[in-house]
């Protein structure tokens, strides 16, 4: 599950408990509900000058989909159905994060594997602890094919083809220092506390820019055309741009 707190203009979404934070349907729904609350509260407060930090308690950021829940269904066909259902449910969560009208920062406080790694890179920035933990796409090792939107997200966030190959076709586990050097994350920090503090500082700095949230989201989606298209996010129309310009009048 997750919790949500607000510190001034920064929202902090935390995956709670000391487990692996596996993304079961219940957990995915909990995160979506928190993001919906973030969006509504920021809109009610004027819709500009906000930021989101997502983090987790314990030694895992997220270990991906809840495979134990899938396997507990009692048959291979039921397990496959449950696994597929988590993929279907996770897709709109990716869309919600990429459409959120504010800067987003992931504070990766432990292992981030498979959908957990995807959850991290859905954010605009990634701060990660460097003393332990790794990022890892486990699909090849456990025999699960990638969904098209997964590959679109990875290509959008990891443009270097050699790094992309290491992650997708080699299943390489990568620590924070190496991930920062390869441009997968932004910065590695000495520990979990330092990663969260850095994420909150960055969020406060970005929120202080007082940007219009809907304009920020529009530019983000436009800068990520492949994953936006894979998720079915409609391209911006001229009417959309006119409406956004109307929001900008006070800034001009």
Show the helix and strand layout:
Layout: E1 2-7, E2 10-15, H1 25-44, E3 51-56, E4 60-62, H2 67-71, H3 76-99, E5 104-108, E6 111-113, H4 115-121, E7 125-129, E8 135-136, H5 139-142, H6 148-157, H7 161-168, H8 176-181, E9 187-189, H9 192-207, H10 213-223, H11 225-230, H12 238-247
Parallel strand pairs: 2-3, 3-5, 4-6, 5-7, 6-8, 7-9
Antiparallel strand pairs: 1-2
GO biological process, one term: fatty acid catabolic process
Keywords: Lipid metabolism
GO molecular function, one term: delta(3)-delta(2)-enoyl-CoA isomerase activity
Fold and architecture overview:
This protein has 12 helices and 9 strands. It is α/β, with parallel strands linked by helices. The protein has a single domain (2-207), classed as 2-enoyl-CoA Hydratase, Chain A, domain 1 (Alpha-Beta Complex), CATH 3.90.226.10. A 6-stranded mixed sheet has the order 1-2-3-5-7-9, sandwiched between helices. A 3-stranded parallel sheet has the order 4-6-8. Helix 1 (25-44) runs parallel beside helix 3. It is globular, with a radius of gyration of 18 Å. The termini are far apart.
């Amino acid at each position: 599950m997750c919790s949500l707190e607000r510190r001034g203009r920064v929202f902090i979404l935390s995956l709670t408990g000391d487990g692996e934070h596996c993304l079961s349907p219940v957990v995915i729904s909990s995160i979506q509900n928190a993001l919906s609350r973030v969006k509504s509260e920021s809109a009610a407060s004027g819709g500009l000058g906000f930021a989101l930090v997502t983090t987790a308690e314990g030694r895992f950021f997220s270990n991906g989909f809840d495979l134990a829940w899938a396997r507990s269904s009692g048959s291979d066909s039921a397990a496959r159905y449950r696994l597929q259902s988590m993929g279907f449910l996770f897709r709109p969560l990716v869309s919600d994060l990429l459409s959120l009208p504010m800067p987003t920062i992931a504070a990766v406080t432990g292992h981030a594997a498979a959908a957990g790694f995807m959850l991290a890179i859905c954010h605009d920035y990634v701060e990660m602890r460097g003393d332990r933990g790794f990022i890892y796409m486990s699909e090849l090792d456990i025999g699960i094919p990638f969904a098209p939107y997964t590959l679109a997200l990875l290509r959008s966030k990891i443009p270097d083809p050699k790094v992309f190959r290491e992650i997708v076709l080699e299943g390489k586990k990568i620590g924070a220092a190496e991930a920062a050097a390869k441009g997968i994350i932004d910065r590695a920090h000495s520990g979990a506390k330092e990663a969260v503090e850095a994420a909150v500082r960055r969020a406060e700095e970005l929120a202080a820019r007082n940007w219009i949230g809907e304009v920020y989201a529009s530019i983000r989606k436009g800068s990520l055309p492949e994953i936006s298209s894979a998720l079915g996010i409609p391209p911006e129309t001229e009417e959309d741009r006119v409406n956004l310009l109307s929001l900008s009048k006070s800034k001009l």
